[in-house]
Amino acid sequence: MPDMAHLDRAPCTWVAFWVELETAKDRDSYLKFLANYSNQQKAAGRFYGAPNVRLSNVSEWLTANRVVPSAARLQSFIAYSFLLICIFNAAGLLMVMFLRRRRELGLRRALGATKRQVFLHLLAETSGLALASAVGGSLLTWAALAILRTRPEAYYADIQVNAWMILMGLLMAIIATLAATFLPAWQVIRGNPYLMLKS
């Protein structure tokens, strides 16, 4: 145990310092300062081991100290997996919906509509669906957050949803819907208008 009355001479302390470094150059300079300090202390006989200078950013520190619980990581993995499953399901449903409209789309093509116009029309239709699902997803997020805050674990009380997160959720819903629309719409418009009318 170190001499508690003379901690300034202790070979190791539990105190960690946080610094704000704005640029990579500042980080390099500070790391060099720490290495020089460690070498000076070793030369003075205070440190006995080789210099062990570490300078980690906030993300690295959070990972090293396991601040984020494994349950939160698992929940994120499940959420993104569920999003991927939903995209595939939506693509399948849209494919069926577009194939059922082959006659209508073939007629539009036969009357002079270009592939690009039909494709953009289908994307515009599903954009409305994307917006509705984004609003519904936002409401579900608020409901899920209210349920999570009733749990006894302390970190659930700190979970917050801000405007930036809602905007990102809306953008993800729109992008996911458009991604699910792209392949089915492309498959439908590639068909021969005459065969589409006959189907």
Low-confidence sequence ranges: none
Mean pLDDT: 80
- The helix content is 55-70%
Number of helices, counting only DSSP H or I runs of 4 residues or more: 8
What's the SSE pattern? HHHHHHHH
Q: Characterize the overall form.
A: elongated
What is the number of E strands?
Answer: 0
Description of the structure:
The protein has 199 residues and is mostly helical. The protein folds into two domains: 4-64, no CATH class; 70-198, no CATH class. 69% of the residues lie in helices and 0% in strands. The chain contains eight helices and no strands. It has helices at residues 24-43, 58-64, 70-100, 102-110, 115-148, 154-157, 163-189, 193-198. Helix 3 (70-100) packs parallel to helix 7 and helix 5 runs antiparallel to helix 7 (163-189). The protein is elongated. The mean pLDDT is 80. Residues 77-193 form the ABC3 transporter permease C-terminal domain. Keywords: Cell membrane, Membrane, Transmembrane, Transmembrane helix. One of its GO terms (molecular function) is transmembrane transporter activity. The chain crosses the membrane at residues 77-99, 119-144, 164-189. It is found in: Cell membrane.
